[in-house]
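G.,

No rush on this.
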Amino acid sequence: MVNRKELDPDKSPGARFGQRLRTLRDERGWTQDELAERLGCSGTHISAVETGRRPPTRRFAASADRVFGTGDRLERQSSAIRQTALLEGFPEYVTHEMRAAEIRLYEVGVMPGILQTSEYASALTARAVERGAITPEQGEERIALASERQGALKRTPPPLVFVVLDESCLRRPVGNPATMDGQLARLVDFAALPNTVLQIAPFNMGDRRPLSLPLYILTMQNRSLLSYAESAQRGQLDRETTSVVPLLTAYHQLQAEALSQAASVAMIEQVRKGTP
C-alpha cells in the first residue's frame, strides 16, 4: 500500500493497540473506510488510532470487540492507554487478577491497592499530585482502580489471597494518625477472612529475605501462572512458566521466613498502639 506507515508496538500502549487493530483489520481484508463504516466513525479516525495519534476510547474499543468478535480483549487493552498513571503492564495484570483463582502479593513501603482504605489511597494520591508526579485526573484513575480491584475480590467463589507485607508498609506514615489507624485495622479485618493469609516480613529478616521488590503472582483457573514485578520506573508482566516458577519459589521461601499470621496481626496491633 502507498504511504502505509510502519508501526512500532514497543513505542507505547497506544502503538500496541493500533497494531492489533490493524492486524485484525488486515486479516479480514477490510480497508480503513470499511472498518470505519462498521464502527460508525471515519476512516481518518481509524488511521489516527492505528498509528497511535489518537487514543481509543472505551466505547470505540468495545465496538471494535463486537465487530471483530474478540470478546473484551480490545476494551481491556485500551485501559492500558487511559490509565497512564500506572506502570507498564499493570493495567493488563489487573484484568487477569480479577479472574485469578489465587493471588499472591508482596509489597514494600506502601499498602497494596487491594488492601488500601479510601482515606489511605486518597492521602497517597494527594501527595503524588502535589509533587507533580501525576495529574489530578490520573490520581482519580488510581483511586478508582483500587476500588475496582477490591470489589472483584468479593466475587463468588472468592479467590485465595496471600499477602506478605514488608514491615515498612506498617511503619511508613501516610496521611494523619486516623488514616493510618484505619488502614491498620483494615489489615486485621483482612487477616480474619476465610480465604486470606496475611504475613509481615520483619526488618530483622535481614539477608534472609529472598525478595526485595514488589511482586504479584497469579494462579489462574486453569492453573497457569502469571507474574507482575516492578521497580521505581517500570513494571513487567510475565506469562512464561520458566520465568514465573522461580519467582513463586522465592515467594514460598519468603512466606516461610516471614512471621506467622498470628504474630503478624500482633505486630500490627502493637503499631496501632504506638509500641515498638
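When you get to it, here's the other one too:
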Amino acid sequence: MESGSVSFSGDPGDYITGGDSYSYSTDNGDELTTNGAVDNSRVSVSINGYNGDWWSLTFEAPGTAALAPGTYTAATRYPFNGAGPGLDLSGNGRGCNELTGTFTITNAVFGPNGYVQTFDATFEQHCEGGTAAARGEVHIANPAPPEPLDLELAVATDGIANRVNGNAVLHGTVSCNLPSAVTLDGNVTQIVRKVLVRGSFSTQVTCTPGSPTPWTAAAVPGGTTPFAKGLAEAVTQARGYDAEYDEYVRVDNTTTVKLTRS
C-alpha cells in the first residue's frame, strides 16, 4: 500500500489493549495490508509492526450491503455477526470470544475486485460484554486501482473436418488489454448420419494487447465416428490470469461452425 495509519488505545481493564496505546504508520516502517470483499461489504487491515507487533482489524457491513460512510451500531464479532454489522480488533495473541461495538466510516472508496483505495474509520470495541473499551481509528490511502484484465473471445464460423484423423479443427482470436496467458477449452458437437459425435479441445496462447491473438485447436472425436462436413456446435471457454488481482477472468462462447472437408 502507499500510505496509511492505525492507532488505538484501551481503558484500564480492556483485554485486547491491556489499557495501553498503540500506533502504527507506514511512514514509520510499519506494514499495513488491506483486503476487501468483492462486493465491498468488508474491509480488513493486517498490521505487521516494525517492532514485531501483529494485529488484525476488520469491519463488515450488515447483510450484503457495501460499506459506506455512516455509523454502524450493535456490531458483533466478525465473522460471527450474521446479518448485522461485524467488527474485530485482535492480535498479539489476544482476541475476544464475544464483543459488542460501533464503528463510523467517514470515507470509503473502492476499486474493482475488492480493491480498497481509501478508507477512514473510527471504532469502539467491548470484549465479553464489559464496560472497558478499545477505541481507535484507521486511515488507508492506496494508489488508484490497477486496470483489471478485460478478455474477449472470438470463434470463427468456419472450420475443418480432417478426413485423415477425423478431428474438427477450429480457430479464432482472443483479445486483451493486459498481457496474459490464456487457456482455451471446449467441446464440439455434431450429428453425423444420426450419430452424435462429440470431441473436446484445449490449447493455450499468450495474449498481448494491441491486436487480436490467433488460436487454433483440434477437437478429437470421442467415439469411432469422425467429424464430417456440415454444421457443428462449438462451446468454448477462455480463461486468462489477472496478475494484478490474482484471479482468473473467464469468457464463454457458443458458436455454430460450418466444417469443410480437408
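The mean pLDDT is 96. The chain has two domains: 3-141, 151-261.

Enjoy the weekend,
O.
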